[in-house]
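Final report, results section. Input specification for complex C-07:
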Amino acid sequence: MSKRKVSVWTDNRFWQRSAAWVTGVAAVLLIWLTFDTMGQIRMGNQKDINAHIDKRVPSPTVINYKIGYKMNAKRGLEVPTIGGSDANGNSLFTIKQKFFGRDNYTQKEADALVNLGKLAEQSKNCMDCHTLLGNGGYYAPDLTKAWLDPAWGKNGPMQAITGTHSRAEAMAAFLQHPGRYPMHARRMPNLHITAREAKGLVAFLKQMATIDTNGFPRGFGKIKEANYAETK
Amino acid sequence: MYHVLFQPFTDVNWSFFGWLNEGPLTLSFFLHGLIVLPMFFIYFQEKKRLKNKQENDGE
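Structure output:
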């Protein structure tokens, strides 16, 4: 009897087993990556700052500190710096900065403030126009590093326009009455943000600027005066 | 610094996938190896099964 050559490629069982294997591995990888990501983005606390430990998402108490954005020699990319930085771009966690007149917000106070800002951001649907950490619209400016925008700094126009004397106060004043301060061709609508919500939103934006985004947006630190916090 | 083929792990938090991604194509090789290599095993196992079946049917 002549032997026919067997054909694995036209055999259903081979494809069934291959599909099951690929699907199974992909499912396991996705579950693994989910837990891996959860570990990566777990928020730090004041103890990490006291111990000079870098976290991808630092404690809300970073609102008590000066925030910068520096080229890190070891990482080879720009990273947020908390409380000043050394020559290699590592955070010093020492230099404080007043946030609405205080630099001693407790963990509980800072958590509540940032949480209020997050809730305000969600209820006012900022992402309808703005981008936060890569999510949202492209109609209005990206808010990921908005805190570091030189426009709000000492040499920027917004403090003079709003009649305020700090970055945080200028941002809060603008958020409450965006129609009064036209800073962009695309005007921001009045969302009736209260003073309390504005303070929370600014805290939320300040903490978000300290989130390590692996150098994104690239070249942000090269913007003139973007490192305002390191100088004045 | 980009002339170095394998660079030290410098990410802010250590992770297995981040570590795998440090070298050139290492993450790709790992994932392709994990998915494709066992398919060779499945292929030869099925080939053997079909041959055995053919022999048994011929008897």
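Confidence is low (pLDDT under 50) at residues 225-232 of chain A. Residues 12-40 of chain A form the longest helix (29 residues). This concludes the modelling results for the funded period.
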